[in-house]
Amino acid sequence: MRLKLLIMLLMCLTTATVYAHHVLGRPAYSLSDDSNTPPSMQVETQIGDFYVTYMAFPAFPQPGQQGRVNLYATHRDSGKPFDGQVTFVIKDDKWFGGHKETLGTQKIDDGVYRQGFLVNTAGDYIIRAQFFSDGEPYTIDFPLKIGQVSGIGPIGIALIIIVSVLIMVSVMQRKRLLRGKIQVAHKDADS
Amino acid sequence: MIMTHPGLPVYWQVLIGVFMLIVSLWALLARTPVKTSHIGWPLERVPLIGLLVRFLNSSPWPLLFAKIVMVTIFITVIIAGLQGTPIPERNLATVLTWNLWWAGLIVAIFFFGSAWCAICPWDAIATWLVRRRLWGRGRLSNSLNLKVPKWLRNVWPALLMFMALTWFELGVGVTLDPYATAVLSLLMVVMATVSLALFEDKAFCHYFCPVGRTVGYYSQLAPVALRPLDPDVCAACTTLECYHGSDNVEPCPTHLVMGTLKENTFCTSCGNCVQSCPDNNVSWHLRQQSVEIKQDARPNWDDAWFMLGLLTLTSFHGITMLDFWYEGISEFGVWIGDSGQLLLSFSLGMLVIMFAPIALYAGLVYWAQRWTGKVIRYRQAFSVLAFASLPLAFSYHIAHNLNHLIRESHDLLALFTNPLGTGTQPLSMMEKHERHLQMIISQDTLFLLQGGLMLFGFWLAIQVVRYRAFALYSETKLWVLPIIVFAILIHGFDLWLMAQPMTMRM
User: What does pTM read for this prediction?
Assistant: First the structure.
């Protein structure tokens, strides 16, 4: 049991996580040169010994719509494609908590790992690809937006902060004014 | 496929290079500079423009109208960013914020100085919320009016914010994310409002705002400035409405007294002094662009760091838009064992690129100090000579931004009629090519503007070195050589950047 815990701890410590929207992995929404295929989202990044390319079809899937992700991983030095198994997990894009579900484990197919998905609720999700190479665990996160996500969140937070500060200032100023009035009244009474 | 913009042609590179050498030699051999007058020409007396200036000065309504328009556009940007398409080139939030506003703002300073600050929507919303009035003197009781702590009364916070903004812009990639652009915009409003609710006057504009301070420093090079029409009227004034405000008009948000005002750095062009002056003695002036930076602006340690920061971060912007940046940062990531999003590699790269030229400058100032043999404090020399960095940064910044403005600002009508980008698709390769070919002005005209700016910036920097060195050491001789070497190295590097193909932003 202790050994398992130790291995788990080591795995967690040595796992390199890749987040979305980054220097190399800027999402690019693109159409192919002259095709009428739906737009895809492509993210390129590097992790450990591998360059990884992730593509999501369609780029903006709707709730209940079938989608697919493609993953290519090539070795940084040799350029050879990774040929082990890759496990795909989907989870809510939240800092704390959130639901997590394994989509499947895929073998390489013509140099590509293909994984289908179907999500019924609009929101921001993370597709996590996990694989082992030379005993090292690799975990890469990619963004997935399903449908239209409400933008009220940031506006609500901004409003809450602003209103809270304004109320706090107003209360403090009232207290300050009241204190001033009491002091003046005391002075008048003394004189 | 990555689309790139062509760089400055070879003949422009040679012309600018030769010009730099000739001007540098001239600076070493020329006679001692003579101090020039800082009094400008009132714009009110210029035909046609005078009419406009008088209209703007006549009442607060024109400015209020402009603020309302700006706030409306700003709210549209927020909504588009939060609710619109995530395709950056189809969303008003990203295109308007990064391609038009952020690029155009620097160009606008060249003509209108700090006029942007007067219509800034962040400050307008904050003021309306805290003062609870659209115009005029609000109730001070709505703010705690605390004094800004002494350790914050400088532009270090603004420099850190500017670095953070650059990091978000280029490292995290906010420029390509409408949602993040909207969140960042909201964050600025929250900071402006909280600052106004806590501190006296406009502490956010004065000390914290990275955009405001960038505008402020570059405005030292603007051809227009708010100044007294008759300095004698200000000299005789005892009530100082420009500083204290009047019954209906707020005081100067950054504690400036018009009678002694000689630099634009902290003037937000809000027009309070124009409205409050009982003698109508304040108005816009046309002036020599170099007079403030050559002799009038006061040197400070934190100001010097901000100006040098502007210089290096501006060059850094250019570097990140070159093709090899991505390969370079990837190699660097491998070298230091960074993985994944490479933010550590990016951050380290940014710090190195930012501080290496500053270290070079510090070393060259030290060399100049040793050479003169004069007893002048190092900090003073560092602060005074740093003014030379401002024209270098400004000229390269505008020349670089012209690429974004002229080559990437297309389909604006379509964007404004569909700000959320509803139902739009990403740009096809054909559309990208079309955009690439359809420029607002011809490519040769663009090169002319960019080349002219690079010439102008270097000329001004050398002038600043001569004047400032004379003010510092009471004579100019071969001692200015280290700072001229600095100007040549930095401007030469910026010229090389301009000559490289630049990656299209979106």
Answer: 0.86
